[in-house]
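To: structure desk
From: M.T.
Subject: fold request, one chain
Message: Could you run this one when you get a chance? Sequence is below, nothing fancy, just the single chain.
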Amino acid sequence: MRRLLALAPLSLAIAACGSHHSNYADANNIGTYVKAGPVTYQLEVSRELNPYSHEDSGYLAGLPRKDAALAPDQIWLGVFVWAKNTTHQPQQTTAAFDVVDTQGAVYTPIAYTNPYVWTSQMLAPGAVEPAPNTTAGYGPTQGGMLLFKVSTQVYSNRPLTLRIYGNTGKVWATIALDL
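Reply: Done. Structure tokens follow.
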């Protein structure tokens, strides 16, 4: 028993080696924070949306007519993100995201307006997006939604990766998505 107790700190230290990634979270760790430039982001949840579900139809409300229809080989992917300004200066959250699959297919979010959709904002020090008193912040996901129209092939080409871009066009952080 003493040997086991003596080895416990060593095994914890070894287990921790290489397990922390400062700019990458994976689908098994939904809730992991990533630093993307001056703002910290968190994946709340990512999932296929069902337009016939009462909850999901609210996420899809307001889609432009040209984007509202899916082809037979497409699905809606909702990625819900939260952000916090942890600096002492006002910071702008990003408006630039995309999703890439393991075969290199890149999907960009659909731009539209509804109370759940992610919108780039200037955050005061310590402020969060979405704000707690907003529909998105108070809703079931507590995150701003990025909506993607993706091929059904993404189920074969997992994991998907959300890329968060800075204002220079450079990828600042990535998060693996569960689907």
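Reply (cont.): Residues 22-177 form a domain with the Immunoglobulin-like fold (CATH 2.60.40.1240). Let me know if you need anything else for the meeting.
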